[in-house]
Structures are given as C-alpha cells and as structure tokens.
Model the fold of this input.
Amino acid sequence: MAPKIYERDDIKSSDEMLPGERSLLLEDDDAANPTDRKQESDIDIGTTAALAFTMLVQSYLLVSVFPYSGFMAMFLIPGLNEETAGSYAGLIASSFMAGRTCTSFHWGKAADRHGRIFVIRSSLLLSAVFSILFGLAPTFHVALFWRFVLGLCNGMMGPIKTLVSEVAHGNQKKETRMMALILGMWGYGFLINPAIGGYLSDPVKQYPDAEFVEVLEPVLKRSPFLLPNVVGCLFCLIAFFLVGHFVEETLPSNKIEHFSLSAFVSSVLCRCCRGPPELIRRISSIGLFQRSHSSQAEVSESDQNKYELPKWLSPSPSTASLFVMGRQADPQSPEASQNDNADKGDQSPIEEEEKAATIRSLWGRRATRQHLLVYWAYSFLIICIDETFPLFCISKDSGLAVQEKTIGNLMSGTGLFYISFQYFLLTGLVDRFGLYKALRIGAIMSVPLCCLIPTSLWTNLGAPQGQLTVTTLVFLSMIYATIRVFSSVAFSALTMSTNKTVEAHHRATMNGFAMLGGSMAKAAGPAFAGLLFSSSVGHITPPFGSVLAYMVISTMGVCLSFMTFFLQARQT
Done:
C-alpha cells in the first residue's frame, strides 16, 4: 500500500507525530526558513545562566574537597603526615565518583522517563542534605560513607548535556556557544571551587582572630571542614530555585511519566523479592494493577474474550492485559511464537527508533563506543591532574610545601587566565576547524603539558618556606590555566560529537551511560593519582618523585591524544 502524502494543511500536529516524522518535518522547516534558524542562534540567557550555575555547583560538589582532603585525612586518622596522606586523600575524593558510578545510568533513564528538570532538581536537593552530613563526619569511615552517598544522589551532568543539545534544536552554532558557557563553567569551577574549599577549610587554624571563628569555635574545632560543605549546600538550594524558574523541560509532555514515590518503592520491592518487574509497573492504592510494563498494556474486548481468565481475577482491561501478557511470556505458547515472528519481521525503522536505549544497544554502536572510550579515558587523566596538584603543593620533600590558603591564591590566578581565553578559544576553534579537529587540538594541548608543572620547583628556589615567588605564581597559573582551557575545548567538542551519535530521544540515557563510565574513571583517578604520588615521593630521591608522577600522567595524555585521531562520526 502506497504511503499517504499529506498536503500542507493536512499535516498532523507535533503531538500526533512519531519522532521520525517530527524530525523530518523539522529538517524541512529549517531548510525552508534559514532566516528563522539565524534568529534562533541567539541563546536564551536565563536558561544558559541557570544551567551554567548548576554546572558550577556540580563541579563544586566534586572538587572543592581536593585542597583539604589530605588535611581532612590527617585530622581524622592520627599518625598521618603530609607525605603519607596522599592515598587516603585519594579515597575521599574517589568515593564520590564510586557512588555516582552505581546510579549514573539509572539517572539517565529517569531523565528520559520523568524529565530532565525533575532529575536535576532532585539531585540538587539530595546533594544539599548530604553535603552537610559529610562536613559533620566524625571519623574517616563515616566521611567516606557520606561522600559515597553524595555521589549516589548526583545525576545532574547527563541531563544538563542533553538539555544543551535539545535547546539548540540542531543549530550547531547555538549549541557551541551554550556548550562553551555551560561546560566552560564546569572547567572554571575546577579552578575557583578548590580555591573556595581551601579558603574555608579549617578556619580555626587559618583565621584564629576572626569574629565568626570565635563565635563558632566549638563547632569548627569538632568539624573543621564543615564550612566548605555549608557553602555547597547553599549553592545547591540556589541552583534548585534557578532551574525550576528559568529552565523549560525539553522532553515532550506526552513522554513524561509522573513520578510516584509509592510506585518507585513498589518496583524496588518487586526486584528485591525477585518478582516479575516486566508485568507489574505500578500498583494503585486499591491494589489493582493499573498498567503493565509493555507496549501492549491496553487490551481490546476481543482479547478479553479470547482468553479465559482465572476466577480470582474480575474481568477488566488491566486484568485481561495481565493474563494475556502471562500467556505471551510463556515460550511454549503459540501466541508468543507468533508475536515474536511478527515483531521480527514487521518492525518499521520508526518503531526501531522508538525502542528504549539500553547499555547493550548503545555499546553496539561503533561511533558511540569510540567516543565514550575517549571520554572516559580523558575524564580519568584530568581528574588525576586535579588530585595530584594539591598533593604536589603540600608536599614538603618533593613539592612546594604551601598551605590551603596559598593553594587558593594559586587557583584564583589560574581562574583569571582561564576566563580570559576559554569562551573565545572554544568557539573560535570549533567554528574554524570543526568539532573533531578542535577535539584533537584540545587533547594535545591539555594533559601532556602537565609534565611542566614540576618546573616550578626551580622557579621557587630561594623563596621562604610555605610561600611562592611571583614568578612561580604566574608560571603555575599560566600552565594550569592552559591545561584547563584546552581540556574545556576537548570536553565540549567531545560532548557535542557524542550527542550526535544517537537519536535525540536516546541522548539522556546515553549521557547517563557516559556518566557511569566517567564516574568509574573519576573514582579510579584520585585513588590512582594519590597512590602514584605517594609511591613516587616515598621511593625516589626528592624532589624527583613528583617529576616522575607528572611524567607518567603526561605520557598517558600523549597516548590519549593519539586515540582521538581514530574517532568517526555517526554514519546515517
């Protein structure tokens, strides 16, 4: 039968169309109206600002602990010193990402089911609570536990990346500008948030004469690292308000499912009791099955008459559908075999696109797999640099032997260089060279340059202990800012190119999968960096231990840069 051709006034509404039809219509409209596309290249300031601040909060939750993680380990574990605290500091930093690894993919699926805004605001609210509990931790094991739970509740990154791509509506220039600002704020947060954490940690030691310290001295002596986490809690609440008022949901309303806590608890209990989750999705308050977890949940009257229902089930569409599903789930049932054959032979491309994305289906895409592997490897190396740098700064034998406040000054100088170049460099490189060449330039000019950081040991010769010369401050600020600027270029280009390897309605799930692997990489990174630095400093003549640690990370960065030349775009 020939497909029906609609006249212009006979086109279906967007709510009635399937995703494949809707995307084709959007492409036709964009091609026919280039002026509209040019006007749409202007970014929404409210949405961009709210998402940028949320990204800043996300990076604060992750990296604000880096400057004081070593001091926190020494405070909670008696007998540790600056040279032996590295591995314990790495555990504190890694526990956050270890928790996020367990839930990243599920947060992504929740964003495709309940909406991107719902997931972001839920994560912010939960993070506000557990940040305070982490700051109040009385022992090292309790601190690890609350840091792990804080990671479990963190699912913001994937939905934010998905929102940027969907708000742009396929306009690459608009997407690049938004990505430069929003992911740029993530990179900027990696610079200023450790500075904030360093300034606010252990205020009794750093600011003994301050009035607020005298007032809160009993609490701050018992929990010297509470203040940075209180600030993190306030940041989360501010972002919760901004996202709710300035960011619009991009998931179509007909695809959003209302979240019910009772239904969620019921599904968890079903899994725990090894019940059939594919048959039961929601249980109503009166105990009847409202909906089965299948596209064939609605059953016609003919289906009800076709099967004989058990006497203990009163006939209704819900019970009939449950019984039919049970018959179809039986592998020996003739109806099941007929349906399987029909599903295999009669599926259209649009029906294939409607299928929910799974880890297996995403991993089966060659282009998606290649991009995710590079993303995970890059996440591992960047977090290694961010964890190693504070350890290098506090080390007395193979480092600069400075305190938290000096590290904060150094990060502030780095941030000044970063904000001066990041946005213009990213947009300029992508506009001139495209996504993949910009990605390769960012990879080459970021991680491999970390081998230059130990040069500061020579520029700081003759300086009083615990202080930095102006030359050292400027040199380290420029080197670290260069690494962060080009890493922002690499991450932004990699995120945009990875989003293009899947359909629009699979992006949140794919970004959840990317977060899963990225969280594992970022959990392993601090532990690896702490162990690498402690072992190098402990077994190699000072100050060459830190030189070896940075050379290892730099060599791995060169290998990663080589991998970027093998990335391929999605073949449509």
Notes: The first strand starts at residue 282 and ends at 283. Confidence is low (pLDDT under 50) at residues 1-16, 18-32, 34-39, 275-353.
